[in-house]
């Protein structure tokens, strides 16, 4: 059985800095300790973007120091908060393709794990340019030829959550769907972060899941809910994927369970956020 830990939205800050009253480095240290204590048999650990809250070198260095305590083989990905050049300058063992994107693959225990870079400088939403789509198509073709089912991890969710986050999700979701479906590869699971809320569903017949991550969690906020979208101290969470020949199971594992609502005034942009178009 293949076991993968996916952590996302780590949002490390420089030493002594907190945001929304939360010390993300302290929380991340708890996550690492939790993984070491309960999931030291994992085959991979994937950090799925938003590593440094401000994309600064000091925060990346702090992240590297903290993750050094995790002996599980790991890969680091980029999110919208990240600065790709700064990360690549400070990282000890970056995963990078021929075009400079922080993406790669792992073929392990009968699966191909594809880690796809959806970050774009200066943008909150996710972007997949032609180079990244071509790279993905090539990796999917290899997986099909080798009869390997695919687990895809990226920062921005491709599917709609029917929440305001849809307005800054993956802009190129239709292009991604075309590449996945036309490849003929077996897409067993997609996992994303970015949205700060755990969800599960399907998209074009493909199982999808998101995780709340290391920073604050957002509450459910659907159309016709007139209140400001609430944000909570917890749960801080990572995903545990268990993959066998029959399929993939995604567990949502909380390592900080304090479910305290944070003051609305900490999140003023939540008062004016909009929903995207309905299906």
TrEMBL record:
<dbReference type="GO" id="GO:0016787">
    <property type="term" value="F:hydrolase activity"/>
</dbReference>
<feature type="domain" description="Calcineurin-like phosphoesterase">
    <location>
        <begin position="2"/>
        <end position="198"/>
    </location>
</feature>
<keyword id="KW-0408">Iron</keyword>
<dbReference type="Pfam" id="PF00149">
    <property type="entry name" value="Metallophos"/>
</dbReference>
<protein>
    <submittedName>
        <fullName>Calcineurin-like phosphoesterase</fullName>
    </submittedName>
</protein>
<dbReference type="InterPro" id="IPR004843">
    <property type="entry name" value="Calcineurin-like_PHP"/>
</dbReference>
<dbReference type="InterPro" id="IPR029052">
    <property type="entry name" value="Metallo-depent_PP-like"/>
</dbReference>
<comment type="similarity">
    <text>Belongs to the cyclic nucleotide phosphodiesterase class-III family.</text>
</comment>
<keyword id="KW-0479">Metal-binding</keyword>
<keyword id="KW-0378">Hydrolase</keyword>
<dbReference type="GO" id="GO:0046872">
    <property type="term" value="F:metal ion binding"/>
</dbReference>
<dbReference type="InterPro" id="IPR050884">
    <property type="entry name" value="CNP_phosphodiesterase-III"/>
</dbReference>
């Amino acid at each position: 059985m293949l076991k993968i830990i996916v952590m996302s939205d780590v949002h490390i800050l420089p030493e002594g800095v907190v945001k929304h009253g939360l010390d993300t480095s302290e929380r991340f240290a708890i996550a690492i300790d939790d993984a070491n204590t309960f999931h030291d048999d994992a085959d991979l650990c994937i950090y799925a973007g938003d590593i440094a809250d401000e994309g600064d070198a000091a925060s990346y260095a702090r992240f590297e120091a903290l993750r050094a305590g995790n002996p599980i083989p790991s890969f680091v990905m980029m999110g919208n908060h990240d600065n790709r050049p700064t990360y690549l300058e400070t990282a000890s063992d970056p995963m990078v393709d021929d075009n400079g994107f922080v993406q790669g693959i792992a073929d392990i225990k009968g699966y191909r794990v594809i880690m796809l870079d959806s970050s774009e400088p200066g943008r909150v939403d996710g972007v997949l340019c032609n180079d990244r789509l071509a790279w993905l198509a090539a990796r999917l073709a290899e997986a099909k030829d080798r009869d390997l089912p695919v687990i895809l991890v990226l920062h921005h969710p491709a599917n709609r959550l029917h929440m305001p986050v849809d307005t800054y999700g993956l802009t190129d979701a239709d292009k991604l769907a075309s590449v996945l479906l036309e490849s003929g590869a077996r897409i067993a699971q997609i996992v994303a972060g970015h949205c700060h809320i755990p969800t599960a569903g399907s998209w074009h017949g493909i199982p999808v899941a998101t995780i709340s991550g290391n920073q604050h969690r957002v509450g459910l906020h659907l159309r016709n809910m007139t209140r400001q979208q609430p944000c909570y101290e917890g749960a801080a969470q990572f995903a545990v994927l268990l993959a066998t020949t029959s399929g993939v199971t995604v567990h949502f594992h909380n390592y900080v369970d304090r479910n305290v609502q944070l003051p609305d005034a900490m999140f003023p942009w939540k008062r004016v956020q909009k929903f995207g178009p309905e299906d």
